[in-house]
């Protein structure tokens, strides 16, 4: 079942209140709104993220692509958002698939569940997914990953840690909003 994050305005206010209540219950997660520079999204991080961007020179590409990362750690959990531009629309779906597969291969964690992701304003793709990684209920590393695109930019949202923390993930992913792109 797809995850839909479009709420009517009165429910947005209720969701924000519930989200702030959840944050108040966990002093180690200090949620704050972040607008990563040069992106077209806003989200809540549970700690102040370090942000980096760099230009990528692609052989034969007429323009320089940009790549970025915002990440932080709180309560033994790592939270990150990464993004990159692709040169052509035909590369969006393969790029999302490659991002997802690279995370799974790099972390060497089994995929416990996978579901379609739908965000208001995103570019539709069958590879826009949310994954739960790790053995449910078992000790050891756990993660949640979401990959999606907007225009010619692909995004990856991730939370990793030694335990499952579904409320933290739902707050992180649920806070994500695609907005008008900021000037670079």
Provide a short characterization of the protein structure:
This protein has a single domain (about 5-180), classed as Protein Transport Mog1p, Chain A. Helix content is about 20%, strand content about 40%.
Polypeptide structure, described:
The chain has helices at residues 9-24, 92-107, 166-174; strands at 3-4, 32-34, 41-45, 50-56, 65-74, 77-85, 111-118, 129-133, 142-150, 153-161, 177-178. By secondary structure, the chain is an alpha+beta fold. It has a single domain, classed as Protein Transport Mog1p, Chain A. The protein has an eight-stranded mixed beta sheet with strand order 1-7-8-9-10-6-5-4, with helices on both faces. It has a three-stranded antiparallel beta sheet with strand order 2-3-11. The termini are far apart.
Write the layout of secondary structure elements.
Elements: E1 3-4, H1 9-24, E2 32-34, E3 41-45, E4 50-56, E5 65-74, E6 77-85, H2 92-107, E7 111-118, E8 129-133, E9 142-150, E10 153-161, H3 166-174, E11 177-178
Parallel strand pairs: 1-7
Antiparallel strand pairs: 2-3, 3-11, 4-5, 5-6, 6-10, 7-8, 8-9, 9-10
- Per CATH, which architecture? 3-Layer(aba) Sandwich
Using the coordinates above, name the CATH class.
Answer: Alpha Beta
The domain count comes to 1
CATH topology: Protein Transport Mog1p, Chain A
Shape: globular
């Amino acid at each position: 079942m797809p995850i839909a994050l479009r709420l009517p305005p009165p429910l947005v206010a209720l969701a924000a209140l519930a989200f702030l209540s959840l944050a108040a219950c966990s002093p180690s997660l200090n949620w704050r709104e972040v607008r990563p520079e040069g992106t077209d999204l806003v989200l809540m991080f549970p700690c102040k993220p370090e942000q980096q961007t760099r230009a990528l020179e692609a052989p034969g590409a007429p323009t320089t692509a940009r790549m970025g990362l915002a990440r932080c750690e709180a309560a033994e959990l790592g939270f990150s958002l990464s993004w990159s531009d692709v040169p052509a629309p035909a590369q969006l779906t393969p790029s999302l698939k490659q991002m997802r597969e690279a995370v799974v291969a790099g972390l060497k964690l089994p995929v416990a569940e996978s579901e379609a992701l739908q965000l208001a304003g995103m570019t539709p793709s069958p590879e826009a997914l949310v994954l739960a990684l790790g053995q449910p209920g078992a000790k050891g590393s756990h993660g949640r990953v979401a990959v999606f695109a907007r225009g010619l930019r692909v995004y990856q949202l991730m939370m990793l840690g030694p335990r499952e923390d579904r409320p933290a993930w739902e707050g992180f992913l649920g806070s994500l909003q695609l907005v008008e792109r900021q000037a670079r």
